[in-house]
Every structure is written in structure tokens, then in C-alpha cells.
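hi!! sorry for the late reply, been swamped w classes. u asked for the two structures so here they r. pasted raw, havent cleaned anything up. first the sequence of the first protein and right below it the C-alpha cells
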Amino acid sequence: MKTQREIETAISTRTAQFEQEYMGREPKTVRVHLVGDLLVVRLTGVLTAAEEHLIKSLPVGKGRDLLKEIRTQLIETARPMLEAMIHETTGVKMLSLHHDISSVTGEKIIVATLVESPYCRDAKKRQPA
């Protein structure tokens, strides 16, 4: 059984690998928070150079809409991989998946709801010196 921090770290590492291998770019940062049965993943620096160029070169809003549409399709296609990764890491099945990306900041949010809160062992407390 893992601690909450071990689960969060494993999800962070595996999400960065997924982004690199599947989406083509490793994010600058990945932060993961497990709150009960809710898994929140925040990634920064996920836009590729091509995506940034697309956003800037098309009329206002058109590039953003196209980016979101493409990214939604990619995530939906990869959903079975994400579900498996979350289940393997937490020991709990995923109930639903929500995501969004900002064309302005290059930040991406993934929120997964789980069928229940994962069982976590308490972290060992440090003894005072």
C-alpha cells in the first residue's frame, strides 16, 4: 500500500511520460493532488511550437477552438491508457475524466473522479533530532 504522496508522485511521473510519448512534448511541470476520490493533475508548458503558431496565425478564437477540439480528441482516444495508468497506480477504477487546456498560458488541467478514495498508508513521521 502506498502513501498519498507516493501515489501523487507516481501519477506525476507517469503523466509526464504519457505527455512526452503520446502528445509529443514533456510538460515543464506536473503537479498532482489526490483529494479523496478526486485526482487533479495540473501541467504547464504543454503547447508545442506548432500549436502556438496555429493559435497566433488564425483569427481570434479560431486557433483556440481548433486546439481544444484536437486535444479533446487526442485525450478521448488515449482514455483507455489513462484509465489503466490511474487504476494501476491508485488501485481504484476511474469513474470519469475531465480536461481543459489554455491557449494563453499553455496550462492543462486533468481531473479524474474515482469510484472511491484510494487506500493510503500513513507516511512515516520524522523523529525530532
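now the second protein. again sequence first, C-alpha cells right under
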Amino acid sequence: MRQGKTDLARDRYIEAFITEPYNKFARAGLIQWGETTKTALAHPEIKIPTDVTYDDKGNVSINLDASALLGGKDDGSFAWITYGTTRSEWKKQKFAKQFPAESTYRHSLAEEVDALTSVIALATSDKKGKSLSPALTKLKKLNDEGLLESYILLAQADEGIA
């Protein structure tokens, strides 16, 4: 960057980020490159309107944002209900089957992919809806282009996924 070789610097920053995506210096270098070259760097912003929490006994609580169900929208927003139920299934049984060597449950990439693809499947199966909500449209596009896992790792990763 100091030598003015911004294309070469970009390639190196991307390489560092791919190698260690959770390293704060790799991320900072890429952000610095974007600021220096006036390039906007961002991932699609998708708000998941469902909150899934577990208590100490392992009981699940699924809270769905009321805006996803109200208003008689035909934009597929009702499909977010499957996000919580799929995550609950992972907590109860799928995690132990998928990761038999792990003794305790954690939120995983496989679980998040399964939950989001279940939302996409239900939303796109409804033939009444004329178009999908902006969030579902972005999510479907990421899935169709094979970028859903990358998006989750870079934009939605929590401690369990990371």
C-alpha cells in the first residue's frame, strides 16, 4: 500500500483474510485498503427476524418478529418460522448425530445453513406470493450462487460457528 501498488495490496489483504478470517489484523488491512481506494466493502445485510434462545435445562424459546407475520404480506416472510424450528431440531437431536465427537451442543455452520435453506425452501414453495421480501431475495440469491456458507461465516458467525 505504501508503494502505491493497490491491486497487489488488495490481493495480499484478501489472501490474509481468507487464511485467517477471524484475525482482526487481516480484517483491518482489508478495511484500510477499502478506505484508501475509496472502495465500499460490505456484505449483504439480512436481518433474521427470529431469535432462538435456550435456557439452562435445554428448553428452546423461539421469538418471531411480529412484522414477519402481520399485514397479510405475500412476500414469503411467514417462512421465517421454520428458522426457529430447524434450529430447535438441531439442539434436540441433529447436532449429536452430525458431530458425535462433541460432548456439548454449539451453534454450527451446518445448523445455520440448514435453518436458512429451510426458510428459502418454504418461502419459494408458496406460489401465491408474487415476490419475496428483500431479505429473502438476498438470501435466495446467495444460496443460488453457492455463497450461503461464505455469507454465514463472514457476516453471521457467532462463537459456535467460528
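hope this helps!! also noticed smth abt the second:
The first strand starts at residue 50 and ends at 54.
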